């Protein structure tokens, strides 16, 4: 340590943790600059000092990359570990050469991948972190299990016995209500139970087999888990290969889920259309105080009676955190201000804004003095303003439950114009829309026109048709899982 900082510490000018952190570096100039040039007191906190010293270095104790490569391999390749005087040399410190560490990780992953290619898989991908959304796009071929050898049967019995015993000891600890909490013992028992369960899982993986035909058309992923262990997933089918494998009769391909269909409306257009759907629902709800009360009560009942509806898993149209969604509608649809629903919403809002007191401290006394009619109508408008049905998907949505109950006619609030729809879809879609709304003959004339001319003509043809895109016609609502007793019976 810098003699100047030793003096500060000797005079109780810094804590033991602060001087230990500064000891991560033996650069006296850096030590003194971090301490004496700190503009704010918080910059001398141990965590801030540690970040300033290690900067882009990698914490050994919290890196799955280090665990995968091992410190011995990193140091053998010429890598340096920054350690302080108080660290356990085997489990603490900072990797100073991140580039070298990543190169060693890549080399080791390539080695694992080559082993998999030698098994016969057509492709192998490696990642340092598992991307669940990426993996979810792949299909999976089912594996078979080969017969056990006599030795493996004995091993399996021993693994099962060890797993059952570890689970029993852990459960006994949890059930012992009269015993004092022992964190160290609990951690030991949980670690043992997890290890025994993992051993059974690893044993089952060793017995998995795939046919040569499956391997020739599928592949494998290698990823690293949090502890630095290589996790291998075999039998994966790329999205673009699913259809051809089904046609060619590859074993197990008939069990693959169908590739996801391209949505009819993209994210931007879905947001635009569902914003108009929301505006229409809001003004209909604002006109109906009884329905507004029911909507809010429906949400609150599940919260208040949580013991009765403990298994209800539902989405809600109204955001009871009192988040006003009006601005979001304007952001989602740049043509919102011209819509009939928005004009009525704006008029209602201006009317109430003019009646309400200017100071919020006067609002509650004002409310208490109003008639039941005024309160109910203001209540309906406020609840309606929390409804948020804007979505990037044109699929099922909880606002449809309200639209069904209020019998909202979207054709009163939305018409297909160039601005609202036709400029945002392809020419082929425009032709298809006219064919749906009018006739194939009317649509045929548009096929010879350019996109802009086709959109302009279609706008004129569709004016009186009351045609609506699927997202505004569909009244599908998400599935609600709340029948606890039926689930128990199914599990049994």
Automatic annotation (TrEMBL):
Region listing for Disordered, in residue ranges: 242-267
Highest rank taxon of the organism: Bacteria
Name recorded for this polypeptide: Nuclease
Organism from which the protein derives: Caballeronia choica
